[in-house]
Amino acid sequence: VQLQAFGGGTVQPGGSLRLSCAVSGTIFSRYAMNWYRQAPGKKRELVATISNVRTGGTVYVDSVKGRFTISRDNAKGILYLQMNSLKPEDTAVYYCNDFLGRWEWGKGTLVTVSS
Questions:
Q1: Which of 49, 54, 93, 115 has its CA 20 to 30 A from that of 70?
Q2: For each of the chain's 115 residues, which pLDDT tens digit applies?
Q3: 51: burial class by Cβ within 10 Å (0-12, 13-18, 19+)?
Q4: Eight-class DSSP state of 82
């Protein structure tokens, strides 16, 4: 399985970004998926989860609730993370993986929130 995250960049506080993660080598629709992030000097943390069922239930870490939205396109094999009202503390490398984190981690995509 290959995971390729992209869409990161540098934005000012209050700005928005949309991250994408292309998943190949597996039947994407079978798996609940997570977005994770790792800030400099910190451990990787779980940010958001989306289920693999049709209803696509979602869960978010408290720090991003109301600002981030996780979604998926099963036909394309792509996971998304819409990030609004970004804060400097959202600065991190963002990764995707399945619910159990069982696949080899990709390089992630860097998000920098700075004025």
A1: 115
A2: 999 999 999 999 999 999 999 999 999 999 999 999 999 999 999 999 999 977 779 999 999 999 999 999 999 999 999 999 999 999 999 999 999 999 999 999 999 999 9
A3: middle
A4: E
